[in-house]
Structure formats: structure tokens, C-alpha cells
Amino acid sequence: MYRWKVSLILIILSALLIGLVMALPMSAKTPASFSPAKGKIAFVGNKGGNDEIFSINSDGSGRTQLTHDAVNNNLPKYSLNGDKIAFVKNTDGNDEIYVMKSDGSGETRITNNPARDYDPVFSPDGSKIGFTSNRDGNEEIYIMNADGSGQVRLTNTPAHDCYPTFSPDGSRIAFNSNQTGDYEIFIMDVDGRNKIDLTNNPAQDTCPSFSPDGSKIAFVSQRDGDPEIYIMNADGSGQTNLTCNPRADSWPSFSPDGGKIVFQSNRNGDFAIFTMNVDGSSQTRLTDSAECSQTPNWQPLPIRF
To answer: Does 122 reside within a domain?
Structure first.
């Protein structure tokens, strides 16, 4: 009798255990079924024709052409959720800002001005786009709704103010300005107030890019005699050279987890796309240096592939 009861208890426990395993979500049962999400990298490629926008996986695979035009397409920037790309198309002989889905479909023109409109960047919530325009006589920073309405000028100086980029919390905008004589990285409130020079160096400092957590800014500096990728704290302290290469390294953009930076370099011939760790180590080429590949932008939010 005792053995029969023990056997019955074991059968019941086994059935309960099987039921619990079957009730687990599929992702919990197969944790290795997905590789770590790393996002895509958009960039501009040109093999002797016109500039087109492409995307690749973070290891350089999966090259996909997103634009197909007889005119140049440039300066791609992903929205924070990764589903759209703002970019510049040389329409009717001048630069205008367009938006498309991240797969290249649904292309829509959102500026229509006889002056140049370029350097588009989405606000973190996707409701606004910052950009540069010379419609008032010199380059200034503007902001507009994501559909192109409500265009408002944020800077108003005789200098050139350009290349805006939003902080991850959307409260500030970093940008280039030569109002002190040479290009420096400035930061201002999102309404254009409280401008502060972060780099304050006699060399050219350009192309700011916030880390995903907002604590760091990558940028380009020529203080060592050639363009190099630098990193600093968001308050301007701790400025450090990451690339340390005698050729031109520029256009930094952080990976979704903040652990890597994508950039362009002509160290092997024509410009190609490279990545490196955030400390400057493991600099790796992703695209063919026989093709001119420039202005990379890393998809802010990861995707599964």
C-alpha cells in the first residue's frame, strides 16, 4: 500500500512539473532563439554615380539600398523608435528635407523653401524635427513639427549655426557654431535659450552626438592636426581623443546600448564606415573602402533579426 501511494504521488508531481514547463512563454523556454538586438546603420553610399541611402546590420552584413533616385540623397537620421528616417534630397537644385520609413518606403517631402534645408534630426518623442537652413541669409538652427508645419527659428546670430542634435530627454540641443571665430560645440535649451560653449578650443570642433543615456557627447575635433573622434562629458569636461589616426575620422553616432560608436574614415582610401568601442578600441571597417560611404547613423532603438 505504501509503495502504491508513493508511486501515485510521483506521477502527480511529474504531471504538475510538465504542466508548468508547458505554461512557460516560448521566449523563456528558448532564451537562445534570438541574437542580441543591435539595430541597423544607415549611411550614404556612392560608387561613381549619385548619393543614395543604404542600411546595413551592425556587423556590415545585410546591405540594403533605401533610396533610388537620379538626384543626391544625404544625411540620414533615424527617429528614436527606429521606424523612420529623416534625410536630405537635392530637389529642384537645392536641398530639402524628406522623411521615409526605415525600409525606404513612404517617402514624403516636408520642407519646400528656395533656400537650403538640411541636417534634419528627430526629437526623442518624434513630434519635432530640428534642422539647419540658410533661408534668412546665413545658417541657423530651426525646429518644426514632424509633418513640416510650424517652422520656427531657434538661433539668430551673424555666425553659422548648424548640425543640431537633441539630448535624449529632449530638453536641450547641441549644435555647431562659429560665433567665437572657429567652430565649437554649443548646447542650448530646446527653445533656443541659454547657449553654452562646451568645447572652447582654438581648433574646429563639430558633429556632436549624444550617448543614449545623455551623459556623453561624441564629436569631431581637429585640435591634433586632422579630424579625430573625441568624447566628452555632457558638460564639456573630460575631452578625450578616441581614434588617434592620421587620416580623417568624423561623423560619430552611438550604438543603442552606448557601448560602440559608428563613424566614417578615409584611412584605407576613400571614406568607409567603421565602428569602435566607446573607449576607442577595436576599430573595425564595415564597408568597402573602394566605395565612398559617409554620414553613418545608428538606429537608436534595437530591432530583432
So the answer is: yes
**Are 133 and 139 contacting, i.e. CB atoms less than 8 angstroms apart?**
yes
**Same domain assignment for residues 165 and 282:** yes
Nearest CA to 200 among 182, 174, 220?
182
Cα 199 to Cα 240: distance, rounded to the nearest angstrom: 11
Residue bearing cell 502504491: 4
Q: What is the pLDDT of residues 130-148, one digit of tens each?
A: 999 999 999 999 999 999 9
Residue 42 in contact with residue 297, Cβ under 8 Å? yes
Residue 200 corresponds to which amino acid? Answer: N
* One domain for residues 18 and 48: no
Q: What is the reported pTM?
A: 0.86
**H helix intervals, the chain:** 2-23, 26-29
Q: Which of 299, 292, 300 is nearest to 72 (CA)?
A: 292
Please name which of 188, 139, 134, 187 lies closest in space to residue 162, comparing C-alpha atoms.
139
C-alpha cell, 145: 513639427
Residues of the domain holding 16: 1-30
Residue 61 in any domain: the answer is yes
13 and 44 in a single domain? The answer is no
Q: Annotate 40-91 with DSSP letters as a single string.
A: EEEEEEESSS--EEEEEETTS-S-EE----SS-EEEEEE-TTSSEEEEEEEE
Same domain, 78 and 123: yes
Q: Does residue 141 fall inside a structural domain?
A: yes
In this structure, are 3 and 97 located in the same domain?
no
Tell me the per-residue pLDDT of 232-253, one tens digit each, with 9 for 90 and over. Answer: 999 999 999 999 999 999 999 9
